[in-house]
Structures are given as structure tokens and as C-alpha cells.
Specification:
Elements: E1 3-10, H1 13-26, E2 31-33, E3 42-47, H2 52-74, E4 80-85, H3 95-118, H4 122-146, H5 148-153, H6 155-174
Parallel strand pairs: 1-2, 1-3, 3-4
Helix pairs in contact: 3-4, 4-6
Length: 175
């Protein structure tokens, strides 16, 4: 089955280039580009945060996309929405601890996937996902000090990982 990706770019010309690279990177995974978000299985909003107006437009667009996602879900389909950008990277100073925390939680996320799905080590995966959840909280707190919008964008991810933690714990308890 052919999956569709819609990439919308805000801000600078460099982001246009990055958007093309994102779409090209997804092609081997079976994604082809579409010009319409309502046809997409994956919507990526790629924003530049050097221009504040671009960041504001993304939040508005997320509201419109939520309606499309809900309609797709009601029809039995799925749509994923991703926001890409340099919200933290663009800032100097306090970003280093925040970026380190971000990298740690990404590594823990990858590790959990291998432990849970690859090795079927449910107990080890439970320990890993609890650490991941803690790392997401730390990352969000560090992001909050730098860019509250970036911290808020971690909330759905944190909620999903909390739910996955409960499921992982239930499977561990039952087995």
C-alpha cells in the first residue's frame, strides 16, 4: 500500500530544502508526496523559528489538521502529524543541557523499541520506558525555560509514552 506524506514549509529557504530532504528520506519507507493534507497518512509541518510569524502559523495549522485527523479516524483511517523545526537549536546558551536531554530521550526511545519489540524483554523494556518517561519530563522542563511552545509540543508524546508505560507494566505483571 502506498502511503502519502504532505510536507508544509514555513519560514526560510533553508527549510524548503530540508522539507525536500524529509520527503526523500521517507520514500524508501513507501511514502510518496501529496499536494493535499487531506490525502496524507503523515503530515509534517517544517518551520523556521528565526521568523516568529512562522512559529505562530504552525500552531494555527495544527488546529486545522486536527480536524482532518479526527475525520480520518472516524472513517477508520489514520493520520500522523509531526512538527519539525529548530525551536531549541536556534537559541544560544541554555540550549546545550536541553539538547542533551533531547538526545538522551531519543536514545531511550530507540532502546525501548528494541527491547520490547525486538528482544521481547518485557521487564527490561519496562525499566527502559520508565527512564524514557522521566527523560521526557526532564526534557520538557528544560525546554520550558527556553521555549514554552517547544515544551508544550512534547505533551502528546509524553502522554503516549505514559500510556505505553502502563501497557508495558500490565504485560510484565501478567507474564
Amino acid at each position: 500500500m502506498d502511503k502519502k506524506v504532505y510536507v508544509k514549509t514555513y519560514g526560510c529557504q533553508m527549510n524548503v530544502y530540508d522539507s525536500h530532504r524529509m520527503a526523500d528520506t521517507l520514500a524508501p519507507a513507501g511514502f510518496s508526496e501529496t499536494a493535499h493534507p487531506e490525502d496524507a497518512d503523515l503530515v509534517i509541518l517544517n518551520t523556521c523559528h528565526i521568523r516568529e510569524k512562522a512559529a505562530e502559523k504552525v500552531f494555527s495549522e495544527l488546529g486545522r489538521l486536527r480536524l482532518l485527523k479526527d475525520a480520518r479516524g472516524a472513517a477508520g483511517g489514520r493520520m500522523m502529524i509531526a512538527v519539525a523545526g529548530w525551536r531549541i537549536w536556534r537559541l544560544r546558551g541554555a540550549r546545550e543541557p536541553a539538547l542533551l536531554a533531547w538526545a538522551v530521550q531519543l536514545g531511550l526511545n530507540l532502546g525501548w523499541s528494541f527491547l520490547f519489540f525486538g528482544a521481547c524483554l518485557i521487564g527490561a523494556a519496562l525499566i527502559e520506558i520508565v527512564a524514557l518517561l522521566a527523560a521526557i519530563v526532564v526534557t520538557a522542563r528544560l525546554f520550558w525555560r527556553i521555549d514554552r511552545g517547544a515544551a508544550l509540543l512534547l505533551a502528546p508524546y509524553g502522554a503516549w509514552v505514559a500510556y505505553a508505560t502502563l501497557l508495558n507494566a500490565a504485560l510484565w505483571r501478567l507474564n
